[in-house]
Write a structure and sequence with these properties.
heterodimer; A: about 230 residues; B: about 80 residues; mainly alpha; about 0% strand
Chain lengths: ~230, ~80
């Protein structure tokens, strides 16, 4: 009984905390100064069609580097805590349907993931979404064949290579352009607006992020689901 | 029109959240927690935020549900061993 009263009190406290936001909420008819800077800058300075990508990769590039680092630490934690044990029960074989379909769908899903992260600066999506899609393809393989073993040296190589290269691209900005330009994509030519090879280093950075996220999450899935 | 769809989706989300807490079968609870993310991604799409919708659909309703199911499987196996 007392537990329920405390839960209700906590909920009431939350409502009181969020009430001012609801009271002062109004729809903005025009963009604020910062957002209009972002929208104009992403088209003029960076040649990016997708404004969200230019914010994530360039204007808030350091935060994205931090996010990738957090994901790496999570993977390291999962790998440390969930050491593989010998399977005690004999795993059930998956159905014929799943095995055949997974071989057919695997390539298609991987291709969609690669499309999403290489076109991050043109269409919605980007490194994180593409990386998770690639992980889903590997998940299908795990579901179809329970005894599947991944080649861990390749996974670790892709993961560390993309992470190191990401930081190196950031350092190239400092080297080639000058101070205050860590992770500046203008180290490469900006190209024509709307082309695949445009927007400087943004497609390269997002591809590296996609590879890193994909390999890290595949490692987590392998650790969690492997028998 | 869009606001009516969003309100209906929001009501379904609240019902799914209630079910996720109160269902006795853990697998059903995990799936109804995944339904919340799926409907949230539809709402993001209606609110013209396709980037967030993709992330929510892929991570929230796909990967998280699968990782929960894997964990549930591991916990149940631990019970059998003891």
């Amino acid at each position: 009984m007392i537990k329920r009263i405390f839960i209700l009190l906590a909920l009431l406290g939350l409502v009181l905390m969020f009430l001012p936001f609801l009271k002062d909420f109004d729809f903005h008819e025009e963009l604020s100064d910062l957002s209009s800077q972002y929208v104009e800058g992403s088209i003029k300075d960076l040649n990016t069609q997708n404004v969200v990508t230019s914010v994530i990769v360039t204007y808030r590039g350091l935060d994205t580097l931090g996010e990738v680092t957090v994901l790496f630490l999570a993977t390291a934690g999962v790998g440390f805590l969930l050491r593989k044990k010998k399977a005690s029960l004999k795993p059930r074989r998956s159905s014929e349907l799943l095995q055949t379909a997974s071989q057919f769908l695997f390539v298609l899903i991987i291709l969609t993931g690669i499309y999403i992260f290489t076109h991050g600066h043109l269409t919605p999506g980007g490194g994180f979404q593409g990386g998770v899609l690639i992980t889903t393809a590997f998940l299908l393989l795990i579901l179809a064949d329970v005894n599947l073993k991944f080649n861990h040296s390749i996974l670790h190589f892709v993961e560390s290579f993309s992470g190191a290269f990401y930081v190196m691209i950031g350092l190239f900005g400092l080297l080639l352009i000058g101070m205050n330009s860590f992770l500046d994509p203008a180290i490469l030519p900006l190209g024509k607006f709307g082309n695949l090879l445009s927007a400087g280093a943004i497609p390269i950075i997002y591809s590296l992020v996609g590879l890193k996220v994909g390999s890290e999450l595949t490692t987590i899935l392998d650790k969690m689901g492997g028998e | 029109m869009i606001s009516i769809i969003i309100i209906v989706l929001g009501i379904i989300m609240i019902v799914a959240a209630f079910l996720a807490i109160h269902l006795k079968n853990l697998l059903s609870a995990i799936i109804s927690a995944g339904v919340i993310s799926l409907l949230a991604s539809v709402i993001y799409l209606l609110l013209a935020a396709p980037d967030v919708a993709m992330t929510e659909a892929a991570i929230g309703s796909g990967l998280t549900t699968i990782i929960f199911i894997f964990t549930l499987k591991k916990i149940k196996r631990g019970d059998l061993d003891d």
